[in-house]
Amino acid sequence: MTTSYDKQKTCCFTGHRQIAPDKAQSLIKKLDTTIENLEEEGITNFISGGALGFDIMAARAVLRAKEKHPGLRLIMAIPCRDQHAGWHFKGKNEYEEILKVADDIYCLNEKYCTGCMQQRNRFMVKNSSVCIAFFDGSRGGTAHTVNLAKEDGLRIINLVG
Questions:
Q1: CATH T-level fold of 7-158
Q2: 142 CA to centre of own chain
Q3: I need a surface site. Which of 64, 104, 110, 130 has the fewest CB within 10 A?
Q4: What is the CA radius of gyration of the chain?
């Protein structure tokens, strides 16, 4: 599955689910600035995987940027329709609200299955030229996605630091 968007004008996000409360505000500012800078470079499509933590934070940042730049598009690439089934109430509501206002939703599987998160990550990387990461060097899905992005030659902007 591929998007109908120009890969050269598309950016994806990858990052950790846990964000220390004392780092959240500075990370939000970095996201806002980075999205603004990319918009000035001609990036208009932003793909979020919709996971708790950084993905949701990034989706909200794109929605804020759309207020100023209505030509921007928020694309949600979700691994499965029931991704949020086990989430707490607040997270579920926020996720559902973002899906309602997203410009497009790519759902890769009807139900959760082994490997669906990695499938989503490959989809995002395959359809992007830039990857904004919140990656602290630890092992896991974010590391895997950053490595995929490096292998595919994406420009990686890491907001850790």
A1: Rossmann fold (3.40.50)
A2: 11
A3: 110
A4: 14
Global pTM exceeds 0.85? yes
- What is the number of helices (H) and of strands (E) in the chain? 5, 6
Where are the domains positioned within the chain? Answer: 7-158
In contact, 71 and 44? CB cutoff 8 Å? yes
96 Cβ contact list (under 8 Å, min separation 6): 84
Q: Any idea what DSSP says for residue 53?
A: T
- Biggest CA pair distance of the chain: 39
Residue 3 has pLDDT above 80, yes or no: no
Q: Tell me if 49 sits within 8 A of 14, measured CB to CB.
A: yes
DSSP 114: T
Which pLDDT does position 2 carry in this prediction?
66
161 class by beta-carbon count within 10 Å (0-12 exposed, 13-18 middle, 19+ buried) = exposed
**Where does the pLDDT of residue 161 fall: very low under 50, low under 70, confident under 90, or very high at 90 and above?**
low
Average pLDDT, whole number, for the chain? 95
